Amino acid sequence: MRLKDIQGLYHKELDVLYGKDEVDSFFYLAIAHYLQLDKIHLMVEPEYALSKIEEQPLFETLSALKLEQPIQYILRETEFFGLPFEVNKHTLIPRPETEELVALVIDEVKDQSYQILDIGTGTGCIAISLAKHLKNSVVFALDISEDALVVAKRNAKLNDVDLEFIHDSILKPNHPNLVSTSQVFDVIVSNPPYVRHLEKKEIKPNVLLNEPHLALFVDDENPLQFYRAICEFAQDHLKHNGVLYFEINEYLGKEMIDLMHSFNFKNVTLKKDLSGKDRMIRGVK
Question: What 3-state DSSP class applies to 146?
């Protein structure tokens, strides 16, 4: 079957769910993953035909997309900050907004020799990107999910970086296994769960039905519980003049400013993402 005919099937079956542009994106990701071909190849050789064996994974991917499974989970990979990452059902799919958080940290840390802690690491995308670009720093990555840490460790190896991994929950009152009582960090960064259940209606089905809710949602009545716990942890484990960085819920910018001020952070700055939404906040201890 010709490759362009398979592309036509993708549009016939999926455009109503995703729209033409996103379906094209899915198709090009699939042929790059399975066939090591790009869209230029299709333009240069419009009659390019596939064998039955070559067709099979493309049709399997089409079937999974019809069930609204995320393309990243289907292919088990994604790209973040120019680096390759494995993803699966135990990890959130890294978002472009989080790349902006990483860029902010890198821009401010630059060539310093810092100890950095990423809380709620998931795929390890934040910690690994920081370790890759901040060669003089030592980066720690924490997550409550052992399954997520397995993926993060594979991603660290994939990207040839050394991280210190910690399996623990930031919500524990005393953090007995988290770090030694004397350990302090120059930078703490986190993209914790922040979507309230009342916002579920804004979430696309392919996210809602597939990505781990543990890493997505918080109680409507206590949406800042992770931020509060991290601010409390920072009182003992962030150095004087150390910096705390968060990705945040776009609707809770004012509440986050108030929270960080309540813990006496200085120079608290709320930053918008490229879509103009309140998305990042930083403060100095």
Answer: helix
